[in-house]
Amino acid sequence: MFENLSKNLEKAIKSLKGEGRITDINIATTLKEIRRSLVQADVHYKVAKQVTDAIKQKAIGTNIKSAVSPGQLFTKLVQDELAILMGTTHTGIRLSGNPAIILLAGLQGAGKTTLAAKLALYYKNKNKTPLLVACDVYRPAATDQLKKLGEQLGIPVYSEPAEKNPCIIAEHAIKAAKHSLADLLIIDTAGRLAIDEAMMQEITRLKKQLQPSETLFVVDSMVGQEAVNTAETFNKQLDFDGVVLTKLDGDARGGVALSIYNTINKPIKFISTGEKLQDLDLFHPDRMASRILGMGDIISFVERAEQIYNEEQHRSLSQKIKTNQFNLEDLLEQVKQIKKMGNLKDMMALLPGIGTALEDFPMEEDFFKNCEAIILSMTPKERTDPHIIDRKRKERIARGSGYTVQDVNHLLKQFDMVYKVMKKVKTGKSLVNFSDLYKKFT
Predict the structure, then answer these.
(1) Fewer CB within 10 Å: C terminus or N terminus of the chain?
(2) In total, how many domains does the chain have?
(3) Which DSSP state fits 386?
(4) pTM for the whole thing?
(5) Are residues 248 and 319 in the same domain?
(6) Rounded to an integer, what distance in angstroms lies between the CA atom of residue 111 and that of residue 267?
């Protein structure tokens, strides 16, 4: 998402480099290109004009300090306006009541069922005890899909296949939650069109009955500007609390994220960034604005890393490095941990300056698959002591992994390079401590 917009904005702002000051004349072309870039990203033309007008007004009236170039100042102004456009700061989720209730609503195909599971996992990791509730009584196999996801996560799902009234199912689910000591209900509902009066009345009754802590409108970001219009219509009838954008890992141009808050004055609270159940992030307008301008998002990177690396893992790895005991088994574990963080290319894009540099680098979901396959084809002794791997062992490992001897050699050379670097680390202090890094940037 935002790749084309980021490129276009970067190109537009570059035209100010070398200028001594900001004037009406030298920013005219830049503002025109920014407005065009926003429209191409599926932002409504009135919103795009509103943003560029605000940037122009602030740019012309700003005194430039000697240590700041016009290009740098203009980048900051664009970043601030993009953040304002998306809501300025993150708006949290209210979880009140016993149990707290999150009600999901939206069109068919928006990804509500998968999102329900993602939210359940997110809050399970926050020490909540969630219960998923299957209230989509219209879509075939909707309940089965939710049960399968719940089973995968170890999270219970409440359903009544014979019952066709979502209000009754939800009422019974609350009793079940209190009986099982679940403190959070996440309710998946059927997809519905805003013009379907009967379906809209149903979701309105469900909200009135449940009085949920949060009612979230789920938006497929692939739909584009039409999603903003749909959200506006839903909001008039349902008055939801916030928006969740799904499928941001696709070919979405980003206009939904940039327009929806400005149009309906309801915050984006979560974004779904991939197909994996852990690919769910809180939405921070200021951080997203930074990413759009190619400035990265180090705080989000650290937060995601902290989800998979705890202090005990950090100490254990540091100790192995200090005592020169780091081996292929440890490398395999690190590969698995990195994969848990999500799409590697998306993660690298969070680091300032890295995303653009790796634009054409082939980092797909299976980027480390060959590494895992080769190491798993080794014996425990070979993983612990790679130096015993001779030609015959390499041939056996290659056959077992489905790769070539050259691939095995390449992996061993890479490990050897890593090992030599690790040996130079005397105290382990050069390893990233994510907790300390997070405090530094916050």
Answers:
(1) C
(2) 3
(3) G
(4) 0.66
(5) no
(6) 19
Name residue, tokens 């469900």. 206
- Asked if residue 93 belongs to a domain, the reply is no
Strand partners, 272: 280
Q: Do 134 and 146 contact (CB within 8 A), yes or no?
A: yes
* 243 and 306 assigned to the same domain: no
Q: Residue 270's domain is classified under what CATH number?
A: 3.40.50.300
SS3 211: coil
What is the maximum span of the chain, computed from C-alpha positions, in angstroms?
73
- pLDDT, tens only, 245-294: 888 765 555 667 777 888 888 999 998 877 888 888 888 888 777 767 76
In a 3-state reduction of DSSP, which class is residue 408?
helix
CA 33/CA 56 separation, integer angstroms: 13
- The Cα–Cα gap between 316 and 337 comes to 14
For residues 270 and 244, the answer to whether their CB atoms sit within 8 Å is yes
| CATH number of domain containing 345 | 1.10.260.30
Phi, psi of 139 (to 5 degrees): -80, 125
Instruction: Let me know whether 160 and 245 are in one domain.
Output: yes
The secondary structure element, H or E, covering residue 348 is: helix 344-349
Instruction: Output phi, psi for 151, to 5 deg.
Output: -65, -40
The verdict on 38 and 53 lying in the same domain is yes
